[in-house]
């Protein structure tokens, strides 16, 4: 068993904000999930787009449960229409990967992906703030954001959220930036809902 995955993450099944509902994935999200994997702009700093046929086969074989069942994994949906906007994940960074601030690794790690049409409206910020506030139920500990240094949108968002850049390292043939924040620093902020 992977010990990192045994460490706790967020337990809430649903979180709402002014504009958003963070919830578990369901079948109607599959088109949006496929788009996130195959859109060249969304994947520009994530290793490039994956072939649609491969992604479709994956969902055919595994169904939505492959996403819905993962701890700390949320679909970001429009609160009024329930339309799929993106995904927000707060899980554990495996000790096998480079980029850590503790000796043992397994820190909480935040990842966000929005459909291209939903960028530039503060939605990722709103979703991430809500998840980090909800996660402050856990003991205080570092939370990581890891992004390619070229991924300005991602790193700007991390900075707006209050993450500090700790340094860089090489992985996947690109320079990566490691940013960190204390989980409980998100406790004091005024709620978004
Ligand atoms: C990283 C990503 C989620 C950031 O999305 P984003 O929409 O830029 O992030 P935010 O939610 O913080 O929104 C900020 C933008 O919304 C604007 N905005 C509009 N209304 C706003 C509001 N009410 N509140 C806050 N910002 C608002 C801001 O001015 C800013 O615009 P700018 O980018 O033109 O300066 C998105 O670019 C993405 O999905 N990228 C591809 C996947 C990826 O690389 N993920 C990172 C993996 S670690």
Strands ordered across the widest β-sheet: 1-2-3-4-5-6-8-7
Which strand-content bin applies to the residues?
25-35%
CATH topology: Aminopeptidase
Please tell me how large the radius of gyration is: 16 Å
Question: How helix-rich are the residues, as a percent range?
Answer: 25-40%
- What is the number of E strands? 8
- Tally of helical segments: 6
Description:
The chain is of the alpha+beta class and 193 residues long. It has one domain (3-184): Gcn5-related N-acetyltransferase (GNAT) (Aminopeptidase). It is 26% helix and 27% strand. The protein contains six helices and eight strands. It has helices at 3-6, 30-38, 52-62, 65-68, 123-135, 152-161; strands at 15-16, 20-23, 73-78, 84-92, 108-114, 142-148, 164-171, 174-182. An eight-stranded mixed beta sheet has the order 1-2-3-4-5-6-8-7, with helices on both faces. The longest helix has 13 residues, at 123-135. The radius of gyration is 16 Å and the shape is globular. Bound molecules: coenzyme A. The site of coenzyme A (COA) has 20 residues, from strand 5, helix 5 and helix 6. Coenzyme A binds at residues 42, 45-46, 111-114, 119-125, 147, 151, 153-154, 157, 160.
Features:
single chain, 193 residues, alpha+beta, Aminopeptidase, eight-stranded mixed sheet, 6 helices, 27% strand, globular, binds coenzyme A
């Amino acid at each position: 068993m992977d010990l990192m995955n045994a460490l706790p993450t967020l337990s809430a099944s649903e979180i709402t904000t002014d504009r958003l509902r963070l919830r578990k994935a369901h079948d109607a999200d599959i088109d949006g999930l496929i788009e996130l994997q195959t859109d060249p702009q969304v994947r520009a700093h994530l290793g490039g787009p994956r072939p649609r046929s491969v992604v479709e086969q994956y969902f055919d074989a595994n169904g939505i449960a492959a996403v819905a069942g993962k701890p700390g994994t949320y679909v970001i949906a429009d609160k009024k229409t329930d339309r799929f906007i993106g995904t927000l994940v707060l899980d554990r960074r495996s000790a096998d990967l480079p980029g850590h601030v503790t000796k043992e690794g397994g820190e909480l790690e935040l990842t966000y992906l929005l459909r291209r049409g939903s960028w530039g409206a503060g939605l990722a910020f709103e979703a991430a703030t809500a998840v980090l506030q909800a996660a402050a139920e856990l003991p205080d500990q570092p939370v990581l954001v890891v992004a390619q240094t070229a991924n300005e949108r991602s790193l700007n968002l991390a900075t707006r959220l209050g993450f500090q850049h700790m340094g860089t390292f090489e992985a996947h043939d690109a320079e990566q930036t490691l940013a960190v924040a204390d989980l409980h620093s998100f406790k004091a902020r005024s709620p978004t809902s």
